[in-house]
Write a structure and sequence with these properties.
Blueprint (H helix, E strand, L loop, with lengths): L1 H13 L14 H8 L5 E4 L7 H9 L6 E9 L4 E7 L6 H8 L4 E3 L2 H8 L17 E4 L8 E4 L5 E5 L1 H8 L2 E3 L4
Parallel strand pairs: 2-6, 3-5, 5-8
Antiparallel strand pairs: 1-7, 2-3, 2-4, 6-7
């Protein structure tokens, strides 16, 4: 009897990515979306550094910055907001993205505007569970990675997931705009 109990406990601890691991996370809107969609994820926390970006997160967690995905809230010239998902070590070619979108220009939102649209503070923005539904554009090479690390809805909190699950849940428009 005890052997079976220990085996069950050991099995539970081996499933770090289990989507029911409620005991170690605070529940953000992003976590709720992932759980509702039965997405397995791992949680990774680090000491948030203002303006540290993905470089700081990758350094503290010992991860390749290319596998960290930043969530950017941008807008077109008509102030229509949208989300861009980009590799941590790359920038967005706003000219190329504007051409793809058929708009004159795009710019990053101010922190206050980004928070108004997403419901998240800058530095803790997740594409999951945004306050407003917005179109999502994703650098297409992100889906080719074996695992990505994306913000879980608060500063210093990343979620490791299979990028195919991100595509399944968010259905982003795939683009090639990395520079």
């Amino acid at each position: 009897m005890l052997h079976g109990l220990f085996k069950a406990i050991a099995s539970r601890h081996e499933r770090e990515d289990d989507l029911t691991s409620k005991d170690k996370s605070s529940v953000t809107a992003a976590i709720r979306v992932l759980r509702d969609n039965r997405v397995a994820f791992s949680e990774h926390t680090y000491a948030y550094v203002d303006r540290g970006g993905t470089a700081e997160g990758s350094r503290q967690l010992g991860l390749d910055e290319h596998s960290l995905v930043k969530t950017l809230i941008m807008e077109d010239e008509l102030k229509k907001p949208f989300v861009v998902l980009m590799h941590g070590d790359k920038e967005v070619s706003t000219k190329a993205l504007a051409r793809i979108m058929g708009v004159k220009r795009i710019t990053p939102c101010t922190p206050a505007t980004a928070q108004k649209h997403s419901g998240y503070m800058v530095g803790g923005t997740s594409p999951f569970g945004t306050r407003k539904a917005m179109p999502i554009y994703m650098e297409e090479t992100i889906r080719d990675l074996p695992r990505i690390y994306i913000n879980g809805g608060k500063r210093g909190y990343l979620l490791g997931i299979d990028p195919k699950e991100l595509v399944r849940v968010l259905n982003p428009i795939l683009v090639k705009v990395a520079v």
